[in-house]
Amino acid sequence: MTCNNPFKKAPIVSINGQPVLLYTDNEANLLEALELKQIEVFSECRNGFCGSCKTKINQGSVKYINDPIVELEANECLPCCCIPDSNLDLDLTVKKPANLQMSKSTLETCVD
Predict the structure, then answer these.
(1) Could you read off the pLDDT of 85-107 as tens digits, one per residue?
(2) Which residue of 23, 70, 73, 84 has the smallest Cβ count within 10 Å?
(3) pTM (predicted TM-score)
(4) CA–CA distances in Å: residue 111 to residues 28, 56, 104
(5) Is the pLDDT of residue 16 over 90?
(6) Strands of 88-91's sheet, edge to edge?
(7) What are phi and psi of 62, to 5 degrees?
(8) What is the DSSP string of 46-100?
(9) What are the counts of helices (DSSP H) followed by strands (DSSP E) for the chain?
(10) Distance between CA atoms of residues 92 and 63, nearest Å
(11) How far apart are alpha carbons 56 and 51 in whole angstroms?
(12) How far apart are CA 34 and CA 55, in angstroms?
């Protein structure tokens, strides 16, 4: 006799090994859940198009709500358009987003 368990254990999300939240379906995506816990993640959009919230996954996996257009490495995710698929440990040690670069002309346009 096979018993299919209709209940899935809620994933624990950790930052660099420290548990910070129990992910439930109350949040639309991982970014929203982190922000509700006042965990700062740099982001510009909420649809997986810009890549500004690109985050390294130390351990675990995610499931995408929307397929991201941004190119990701195997150990990266976009919290704006995914949810944890298992317990998840993220690396949020970088304060300044490394994937955003502005050209000198863009900076000059912004200053003018």
Answers:
(1) 999 999 987 554 444 443 444 33
(2) 73
(3) 0.75
(4) 35, 32, 11
(5) yes
(6) 18-22, 12-15, 88-91, 55-59, 76-77
(7) -125, 165
(8) SSSSS-TT-EEEEE--EEESS---S---TTEE-GGGEEESS-EEEE---SS-TT-
(9) 2, 7
(10) 19
(11) 12
(12) 12
Q: Which amino acid is at 61?
A: S
For 19-66, write each residue's pLDDT tens digit: 999 999 888 999 999 999 999 898 888 777 889 999 999 999 999 998
Which residue in this structure is represented by tokens 């950790």?
A: 14
| 8 Å CB contact between 31 and 82 | no
Question: How far apart, in whole angstroms, are the C-alpha atoms of residue 41 and residue 31?
Answer: 7
Q: Residue 2's pLDDT is what?
A: 60
In 3D space, the residue among 37, 46, 31 whose CA is nearest the CA of residue 18 turns out to be 37
Residue with tokens 């500004």: 52
* HSE-up of residue 95 (Cα within 13 Å, Cβ side): 0
To which residue do tokens 């379906």 refer? 25
What span, in angstroms and rounded, lies between the C-alpha atoms of 65 and 28?
9
